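Protein modeling request. Please complete all fields; requests missing the sequence field cannot be processed.
Requester role: graduate student
Desired output: 3D structure, token encoding
Chains: 1
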Amino acid sequence: MGTSYFGLKIASWNANGVRSRTVELRDFIDKHHPDIILIQETHLGPGDTLHIPNFTTYRNDRPYTPNRSPRGGTAIIIKSSLSHTTHRHRHWARLRLLRLLSPRPMEIHY
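Delivered output (110 residues):
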């Protein structure tokens, strides 16, 4: 399990492709009850979905290349009950900021 930040459970996972591992991800959530999950190497492309009940998912997919399987990509999965906001970075279009509003302010850049 990842890090605790003022009572939050934060997990990080290099998925190396999350589409075929959603059952593994849901089992991990059921067992460890994380509040935030940071995923690298999602390998998601246009038309792919990543839905986990009671969580909100924010994705940053690598640009799509025709005739090639999706590679790279990141996702932040956060409990829907946690108060947060998200917005694009003003200088870097692909960078987004997620601001957790409680219990303590925290920003995650992805």
